[in-house]
Amino acid sequence: MTQICDIAVEAIEIALRHGVRQVTEVASLAASDAWLGEPGATFVTLERDGELLGCVGTLEPHQPLGRDVAEHALAAAFDDPRVPAVTHDDFCVMSVKVSVLSPSAAVAARSHGEVRALVRPGIDGVIVRSGRRQATFLPSVWPKVSNADEFLDSLWLKAGLRPRAWSAETEVRTYTTREWTDPGPRDAVGSSTARVR
Questions:
Q1: Is the separation of the CB atoms in 26 and 11 below 8 Å?
Q2: Position with higher pLDDT, 31 vs 13
């Protein structure tokens, strides 16, 4: 079985080596693994020494899993507006985590307190929506916070909402993830003078 992290690493490596994004070519690595050809929703997270280098994904499946991983790996490496693009030096030592999301389920809650009681720390990823505002935290965020209140307050802030605010438009959904990680290090790639496009 093709390792799902190999798709993410290969996509970034080709982009750094040649200055171009070749999603179709990379996604073809998954052709022999039927499950990677099934629709799937993924996030790809890149970190160096525990610091975020990029994290991009989607909440709903809309394309084959292998292609989804390749696209999100490239977006995490070069398009996350919160951080600079990944460099050749980053590539050698960064960790690459691929999270495959389960279908999300609505949380039957009518208040922040009810959400807090129903969310499973360390297990659930959480989505909050209110009007046009939306944000999510993957389950991998749980070890970085001290408790459910901090997790939910930070998620509300990420969505541009006042922590613990609740309205008739507020909707919360949860999901779980299966995760694979390539911790690095890996061999250097030949440098390209072209900007990745």
A1: yes
A2: 13
pLDDT tens-digit readout, 29-85: 666 678 888 999 999 999 999 999 999 999 999 999 999 999 999 999 999 999 999
- 176 Cβ contact partners less than 8 Å away, ≥ 6 residues apart: 101, 102, 123, 124, 125, 139
* Calpha distance 42→83 (Å, rounded): 20
Q: How confident is the model at residue 1 (pLDDT cuts 50, 70, 90)?
A: very low
Q: Are residues 52 and 110 in the same domain?
A: no
Whichever domain contains 170, its CATH number is 3.30.1490.150
> Which pair of tokens denotes residue 22?
């070749």
Report whether pLDDT(194) > 60: no
What one-character-per-residue DSSP string does 117-153 give?
Answer: HHS-TTT-EEEEEETTEEEEE-GGGGGGSSSHHHHHH
**Is residue 99 a contact partner of residue 179, using CB atoms and an 8 Å limit?**
yes
Distance CA 135, CA 95 (A): 24
Which residues constitute the domain of residue 77?
Answer: 4-101
Q: What is the CA radius of gyration of the chain?
A: 18
